[in-house]
Write a structure and sequence with these properties.
Layout (H helix, E strand, L loop, with lengths): L1 H18 L9 H27 L3 H17 L3 H10 L6 H21 L9 E2 L8 H12 L1 H12 L3 E2 L2 E2 H10 L4 H8 L4 H17 L21 H29 L13 H32 L3 E2 L14
Antiparallel strand pairs: 1-4, 2-3
Helix pairs in contact: 1-2, 1-5, 2-3, 3-5, 6-10, 6-12, 7-12, 10-11, 10-12, 11-12
Keywords: Membrane, Transmembrane, Transmembrane helix
Length: 325
């Protein structure tokens, strides 16, 4: 599958590069350079996968697969925003860029899975018992949850008819409609329910599912599947997509807000009445995205480690056995 993905991604990037379609959005010479970078990534992944087929999963090739998977994950940056825009807006800004984000995310999963495959012992594997994350990871999850409170409070002030940063609910509704918000988004806003707050609540649910035992087993009230183990990929895929999008977006946004507050750069006014109002709104959002994104990455890593298949003898099935001298 990884070989097929590499060929498909290379062909997709080549088609975009030759037709002048921006693979990563934007325009001009930079977009052409990024297009050929995508072609190079696909060709590199294809070469590594071909070497694995010929020579087997040697340590060097596994390392190169991880590198290719990391680059593919970086190329998938923006996928979460595409999904949100597609659900709550009129459509994505660029279908080619959205397709690239989706293909790159699939490639990151396939390449990483190939890098860690064929490591199970001949005796078979068992799933470990559901467990809590270490205390430090749970404290990180608490920080990721608390970080959303100022952002949610700001959004709820608008949704409930209040004014924040000199902007009223009516003005926010007009801005959302002008920016192409979907009927679902506008309807929720009219009911006093902000869509981003609902998404934040889902994100917090995912975060705690990664650090608590109930995130590893389907609940008893769920029909047909109650009591069964949750497939590892089910929470890990959205967690990795969310962390890869929100953590860098929030951290870079915090840096920009800090520079704007210090007067080094000027905050763009956007849809607000002044740059100061835009800055006041940006701080809660960037803090929430940065802290939550980092917490999600930490929780996802803990979930990955705690749910690794174990050998019949209790050894970690994802690690090759050690040879004692």
């Amino acid at each position: 599958m990884a070989v097929l993905w590499s060929a498909a991604y290379t062909a997709f990037g080549l088609a975009c590069a030759l037709s002048g379609t921006a693979l990563f959005g934007g325009s001009g010479r930079a977009s052409i350079v990024f297009d050929w970078a995508g072609v190079t990534l696909g060709a590199f992944a294809a070469a590594v996968c071909g070497a694995v087929l010929r020579c087997g999963p040697r340590p060097l090739l596994r390392a190169l697969l991880r590198v290719a998977g990391g680059l593919a994950a970086a190329a998938a940056f923006g996928l979460l925003m595409d999904v949100i825009t597609l659900v709550f807006g009129e459509g994505v800004d660029s279908w080619a860029a959205a397709a690239n984000h989706m293909l790159a995310a699939v490639g990151a999963l396939l390449l990483t899975a190939t890098a860690v495959s064929d490591r199970h012992p001949p005796g078979g594997t068992t799933a470990p018992a559901p467990s809590c994350a270490p205390v430090g990871v749970q404290l990180t999850a608490c920080a990721g949850t608390v970080a959303f409170l100022p952002y949610a409070a700001m959004k709820l002030i608008w949704a409930c008819g209040g004014t924040f940063a000199d902007v009223s609910k009516e003005e926010m509704l007009a801005v959302s409609e002008r920016n192409g918000a979907s009927e679902i988004w506008l309807t929720l806003e009219s009911w006093g329910l902000d869509a981003t707050v609902l998404l934040a609540a889902l994100g917090v649910f995912l975060l705690w599912g990664l650090v608590r035992p109930w995130g590893q087993v389907f609940p008893r009230w769920s029909p047909l599947i109650r009591g069964r183990r949750v497939p590892r990929w089910l929470p890990l895929v959205p967690a990795l997509i969310g962390a890869a999008t929100l953590a860098p977006y929030g951290v870079l946004g915090l840096g920009y807000c800090a520079l704007a507050t210090a007067g080094v750069v000027t905050m763009r006014q956007g849809d607000f009445h002044s740059p100061g109002d835009a800055l006041l709104v940006s701080w809660p959002g960037m803090i929430a995205f940065a802290v939550y994104g980092v917490a999600l990455a930490v929780a996802a890593r803990s979930y990955w480690l705690r749910t690794r298949p174990m050998g019949q003898d209790g050894a970690d099935a994802t690690c090759p056995p050690r040879v004692l001298a």
